[in-house]
Amino acid sequence: MISSVGPVPAYICSQFGDLLAWNEAATEWLDDFGRFDEERRNTLLWMLTADVARERFVNWEVQARHLIARFRSDVATIQVSPRVAALVRELSERSPLFRRWWDEHEVAGPDCTAYPMRHPRYGAVPVRTLELLYQDASASVKMIIHMPTEGLPADPAPADGATG
């Protein structure tokens, strides 16, 4: 399913933000999540600790704060979860910003407001996040798509002016 939405970035994650699958466009637009150890493949960990996340999201602070508030909403109904406790502990140790924003207790739902993402070739591209949720009694997963609002720009011309 995520391959079918290429060339736009899409990934599937757990309610904890653990990345379960992603398409090639997500590797190009965001990061090569395959290079991370499986237990480190998490949207929150990536957003708050990877330098490339700050490069990819033009308004990184706004997006990071929303992701934390969204995480709080996603896990609000879980009474006790070792995974949530471990993530909050690790993020609190690794990111002073996470500690500060987590302590604000913001809760947010999906956001369809357009925001700019910085693509390595296309530059800043306005996108909206589309979130598809699958939930059953035991777990939930969501497919996240960062959909350009105006379509993808044409490939930029080669730097040397050659065509091809």
Structure write-up:
By secondary structure, the protein is α+β, with helices and mostly antiparallel strands. It has a single domain, classed as Beta-Lactamase, CATH 3.30.450. The chain contains six helices and five strands. The chain has a five-stranded antiparallel beta sheet with strand order 2-1-5-4-3. A hairpin with a 4-residue loop joins strand 4 and strand 5. Helix 2 packs antiparallel against helix 4 and helix 5 crosses helix 6. The longest helix is centred in the middle third of the chain and has 16 residues. It is globular, with a radius of gyration of 16 Å. The C terminus is likely disordered.
Report a brief summary of the structure.
The chain contains six helices and five strands; from the N terminus they run E-E-H-H-H-H-H-H-E-E-E.
Question: What percentage of amino acids are in beta strands?
Answer: 15-25%
Overall average pLDDT: 90
Helix percent band: 25-40%
Roughly how many Å apart are the termini? 31 Å
Number of domains: 1
CATH topology: Beta-Lactamase
Q: Radius of gyration in whole Å, from Cα?
A: 16 Å
Which consecutive residue ranges, at least 5 long each, have pLDDT under 50?
157-164
Order of helix and strand elements from N to C terminus: EEHHHHHHEEE
CATH C-level = Alpha Beta
For the sheet with most strands, the description reads:
5 strands, antiparallel
**What does the overall shape look like?**
globular
Number of strands: 5
